[in-house]
Amino acid sequence: MAAERPGTLKSRIYSLGLALLPDTGAFLTGGRGACLAFLHGPPCRVNSDTGLHMLDTLQFPVAAAPAPGETIAIAPGVRWLRMPLPFALNHINLWLLEDGPAWTIVDCGYALPDTKEAWERIFAQGLDGRPVRRIIVTHYHPDHMGLADWLSQRWEAPLWTTEKEWLHARMFSQDTGEVSAASRRLFAHRAGLDEEASTIFGERQGNYRRGVPSVPPTYHRVSQGMDIEIGGRTWRVLIGEGHAPELACLYCAETGVLIAGDQILPRISPNVSVQTHEPDGDPLARFLASLAKIRDALPPETLVLPSHNLPFYGAHHRIDELISHHHQRCDQVIAACTEPRSGADLLPVLFRRMLDRHQTGFALGEALAHLHYLAAQGTLSRTCGEDGVNRFLYSAA
Question: Is residue 370 included in any domain, yes or no?
Answer without folding.
Answer: no
